[in-house]
Amino acid sequence: MSFLRIQNISHTYFTKKSAKTALSSISLDIEEGSFISFLGPSGCGKTTLLSIISGLLNPSSGQVLVEGRPIQEAEEPLIGYMLQQDYLFPWKTIEENILLGLRILNKSNEISRKKTFRLLKEIGLEGTENQYPKQLSGGMKQRVALVRTLAADPKLLLLDEPFSALDFQTKLRLEDLVSATLKSFGKTAILVTHDIGEAIAMSDTICLFSSNPGQIYKQISVPEQLRNLTPFEARAHPEYASLFQTVWKELENLEK
Ligand SMILES: Nc1ncnc2c1ncn2[C@@H]1O[C@H](COP(=O)(O)OP(=O)(O)OP(=O)(O)O)[C@@H](O)[C@H]1O
């Protein structure tokens, strides 16, 4: 049984005057511990599919099963979200921000708090506990957001363009950090991105979406040689350049 099963999902948005089919017949199986990227032209339904997977949006038809059960039936927080913006509370300290999820979920205890502080340290932010988000750089705030997301110990991470607002160097450093952290905890992750290089460097599989309506056009497996490297190292590997060309051409064909 696959960890995440997306079964024949279609979704139409209705307004008073129109109907827009954002997704049509999406089926996908995702194994536990794997890293999948959703790549495709603007408006092909990537964010809609993430919202459906997270259970925030009910699809017009089809279902999403996590470990064989509908996502809505899960008791534990199965899913963590990391977005383009960090959404930290500016009036709360870093410590209060990273512990917030645990408090809301009633999971705040000595062990979970210690684990969260250890994660903050591992991620290079020890000593920032009493600071406020405005005192940190954009990259540091995204790292805090990652700690907050992981604190609740979700099994599945949904990453909706989490690096796109960062400068290039910070983005590359954070890609390495996020990739290493998720691998070490054995988390399953889905990344929505517009960046072909990021999709290749971080993923095991890339799902290419076509639009109108959004469909999975192709699934591309990232070669083993690249998967065993850090994202930064992968970008320097000869296989990276050739896969980049392949994906680029596929996307160009889609836009014709
Ligand atoms: N609430 C809504 N009501 C009506 N139409 C919507 C709504 N949300 C999205 N859409 C439409 O559904 C389609 C898919 O949108 P979605 O945001 O999922 O695409 P996307 O691939 O994430 O786009 P982008 O890469 O630009 O973020 C688009 O045509 C969009 O205009």
Automatic annotation (TrEMBL):
Give GO terms: molecular function aspect only.
ATP binding
Question: InterPro entries, alphabetically?
Answer: AAA+_ATPase, ABC_transporter-like_ATP-bd, ABC_transporter-like_CS, ABC_transporter_ATP-bind, P-loop_NTPase
Keywords, A to Z, come to:
ATP-binding, Nucleotide-binding, Transport
Q: Where is the ABC transporter domain?
A: 4-236
Q: Name one Pfam family in it.
A: ABC_tran
- ATP-binding: present as a keyword of the record? yes
Concerning PROSITE patterns, the annotation shows: ABC_TRANSPORTER_1, ABC_TRANSPORTER_2
Q: What is this protein called?
A: NitT/TauT family transport system ATP-binding protein
Q: Which organism is it from?
A: Peribacillus deserti
Lineage, top ranks: Bacteria, Bacillati, Bacillota, Bacilli, Bacillales
